Here is the input.
Amino acid sequence: MSVSQELKRFGNHLILGISGTTLSDDDKRALNELKPIGAIFFAKNFLDGTPYQVWLESFKDLNNQIREYTERDSMFMTLDHEGGRVIRTPLPITRFPYGLLLRSHAYEVAKATAVELKSLGINLSWAPVADIFSHPDNPVIGPRAFGNTPETAAQGARDYYLGLRDSGILGCAKHFPGHGDTSRDSHIELPILNLTLEDLRLRELIPFKALIEVQIPLMMTVHILFPKIDPDVPGTLSQAILQTILREELGFEGVVVSDDLDMKAISDIFMKAGTVARSFNAGCDLFIVSRNINSSSLERTYRIAEDFADSLSNGSLDEAVVEAARERIEKLLAVTPQYPIHALDKDVLLQHAHLAIASCYS
Here is the structure.
């Protein structure tokens, strides 16, 4: 098999970020050569300060070009769209509040959010947060979580996911096995949590279990080191966490996706040969490279893809492992709707605005 074919094989496991509101030459090359199975969008991909119809048409053109260059009719078109500060889209898309404020409104808000996401051609939301707001100085989770206790976090995350699901949007539980109890931000460093497996069972795992029980299709890994569970590698690379706990103990059968490989907690590790094989072998199926944090350069993306090809060639990555991951992804993609981009009626957006306000008063 040629190198180019091996790189395309990695594309079956890649969610890739795009550099701006239009495709650069680098974007076109990567989409055509790697053929990622999905795209992740950020604020930089939407024209800001322009009328709704203008930015929507621009985003529609961008989506059409992505499909053209990947030569894929079916893709995961994805967005981090939790509410609070985690909203990438321009107005008039609704600014719903943080998960912590939603309480009894979580299901209703998620259904409304799904309507808006579908209008943008999005079929997968990187939500809900299943972490617990258990550390008051947490700089990265905080009120993004649905509760301060395992029970409130589980209830809110479950309701939110069901709202997405019932309106036709895929959800993803994050960040397994929990990012709520740290005072460090994995976007800029590798946090360390000295929790035992029993600690996790009594607290962190409870919301994830609730989501697995309602068959959430994706689970996002966390870039945190748990030395009392696996002293060698963070969650994204840990067989003890992704296989022993997530797959075997909790019985998760869906797609395991890495958090962004551009985050500083993990970015340097993935530049070392054999790392992508270790992550596959640990249990990761799908990888996000956002090109949104450290650099818009594609050099890192290609190095990871080449490490994948080298690992297959030298036998450190087993074909059976890759095939099992690909089958899980393809099975999910086969039932994932592909939505046309269209403007929403003003009355719908007004209803959603009233819901956002009501959520703040619950």
Summary: The two ends are 58 Å apart (CA to CA).
